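Fold it.
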Amino acid sequence: MQFDLDQRTASLSVGELSEFTLGPRDASGAPGGLWRAQLGTHWHNQLRAQTAAENPGAQFEVTVTGQIFHRGWTLTLTGRIDQLIPAAAALVTLREVKTVTRAIPADEAELRAEYPAYVVQIAAYAALCRLSCGAPSGRGFPHDEYPGSRGLDPGLTCGTPLACKPRPSPPNTCAAPLLTLRAELVFVEVASGLSQTVTLASADEALFTARLESVTEFLSLRLRARERLRNLGYRSPFAELRAGQETTGRDLAAALGAHPIVLFEAPTGFGKTGVLLELALGQMRAGRCERLVYLTGKATGQIQVMRTLGDMSGSSGMGVPPMLTGGTPVPRKHQTHGLAARATTQAHAAPAAWLMRPKREHCINGAAPCNCHPDICPHLRDLETRWPRSGLSRFYLIENHPRDLDTLRAAGSDARICPYEISRAALAFNDIWIGDYNYIFSPANRGIFTGQPGYNPARTLLVVDEAHNLPARVADIHTHAFSAGSADAVTMWFHRVRAPGALVNAWAHWAHFLSRLKPSGAHGLATEDDACELVDTLNKHIVGTPLDTEQMPPEIGEILWGVPAFANDLAEFPGLSRLWWSAAAAQLGVTCLDAAQAIGPELRMFGGVVLASATLTPVENFVAACGLDDTEIPNPEIPNPKKIPNSKSQIPKTEISRLGELTRRDTKKLFAKLTSGAGLLALDEARAAAAPAHVRAMTPWRDDAYDVAIDARVDTTFQQRDRHAATTATTVAALAAASTGNGNIAVFFPSYAYAESIKNIIEAELPPGGIFLQPRLPGLAAQNAWVEQSLAQPGALFLVLGSSFSEGIDLLGGRVSHAMVVGPALPEVNAVQRARLAMWAQLGREAAARRVYQIPGIQKVNQALGRLVRAPGQRARILLHCRRFAEESYRELLAPEYRGGRVIATDGELGDWLAG
């Protein structure tokens, strides 16, 4: 749907209108099958041939378009009628053919109740043709008396040869004779081909009017949202600005005004969340965007966004802040009833925000949690029918209604409607969407955001927090794993339900292929080709076979539908670098090595993008990892402009000779433009404007906050760490003895096993002391509780670099006087990393190793150390415990605050540093 709120107009297809709803949609709980579409096409063709034989004057796939004025909105509808049959001199039959899986014939009332969208569709076609050709309804409703249609615009064209015989006519009306229209739905049972005809009745036209009501109500709510944004009121997220914060907001706004994508780098504790929200609210209030999508990969970050929004609105207390429920309450003297009251603009409005949590956290179906099929979960049955009577529209109609997860679950339980469907229904009416990366970058989940009515990425500001994790997260999305064991489980289920033989045979070939795989760091092209062929064949059988999804266990469905998802991934992103390998026998892994091609195009769809993190350096590598190093330069004087690669990036094979791909005339024009100084300058300026801008926050209070030393006495590489383990243990004890305050220190290790080995040495050979080894705890609350408990007594916290304890816990700032990093956290040497090295081999051995190993490893170190100083006045002494930190290739990747430390070569120098 496209709409213009200023002109109060909207354009949509008849199909969109028939399916449009303000509430949730009934779902089958499983992906649709190609078999249904193929059989539907078959029966459509059969009925078309039959109609053509019976009536040579029949027309098929007839385009109809027209405008309808409803509730102050002008709606332009467009569609195609399956069959238009002239039955007599003044009688025309409109016929829509619909295939259904249920048994036919059936009671007409049941068909109308089960397929209301089909009834709306044929009613819409009847209304448009009636208005176009001046035809009465044939059911007691001439077009100027159509229920709920005051102001219907008769100036329509149906696109048919019905406009007919010239005759005098009023302005804006079709010069066609008055016709009587008969509209009918032909339901065809998809399996057998049996059909049943249902004629449109006057009562059915109320469904069409109800759909018009839904569309115009949605548009009115969007108009209310725009007025709310124009009158946003919020306060600064900072009670007092720290040094360096004064200009950050202006710098970001200026960069976003000149560049579509901005990289924002600020250390942990700077207040990135507040700065980003203040920027976004200012952009929305100025009309530069109409929605904010705020993504972060951790629940902690999402919760922090909601809390900061609450602080900016001036809310206090527990639960959902008033600001997060959509705005300030309307004073009683201004309260009225109806939609007009809901559209009332407040002097100081607050944006409506919605935190989209995973489906499993919404689930209230205790018997079969997250088994999302209407026949299994009663909260998913007849959603469209039960929603209007449920009262759950209050979650988006009432602006100050609570919308926290507990409230949603309670409301869903009372109404027996899935709380996740409440969230999906309410999402479209909120100005700020907060959620995980998956809601934009995962093909399986992005529809929750991108499928919302009114969603327009070109009018949306996208903020990605902790963006340094984005390339790895998107690569994980496009990584797939299969095993012979899981395939055998599906085979057994197929035999149990007696699945069609063709599908069973195709799956048996796939299971046999998996069972014969041997451990391999990289399969050859022959194996890859065999797998692709099997997946392609199997995908066709899966989507082309009607399966009893109602009786399919969730674990079987996950394995089965994983094959079409993989096939779609291969088809949609053929250029992604992938490793086909087997970590163990009878297993197949398809690992995405570089997700740049899946990230860059998605980011460039948005009107503005801010990628924020404490560790984006080196920027050029991050830009390349996000697919932003190839810049599209719009140039109307160059036909079909292509991407102009950055000089530092690898030039794709398809981008070889631009001049050779043009005609002679275009080549001359391009040559003339590129050989002029002005032309070259224009291209440089265009590239600079389209390239991402980099804004680094100024934090003078961090300049002297770290006292860093590099311990060159030890080598913590995997081959040498055992030799130096005793020295490492002794150093931990010395650091703990030198600590101040509560006597706590933090020791960061590259792996859990390494931390455990040093802990065992300390407990066995050194005086007893408090060693608190990071446990494997899944929840944030449990992790925070463990940190608080450990900090309550003197001792050393053993943490793993890259884990949630080192990157997601913000409790160490100012509470740990000394910290030690036991070696850079380089990725494990395995088949995947070797494949990445081979992928970047053209850069040279050192450059490839830097990209694959050093940059990710030092990035984890920077992330961990950044959490030790989060505010002015906090200080920490850091010991980088490995001689590799003294090497220039490692040191230059450290954040500037950690680079200038002294190098310690002896035990005496360590003692002097600790005593200093």
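The CA atoms of residues 514 and 631 lie 41 Å apart.
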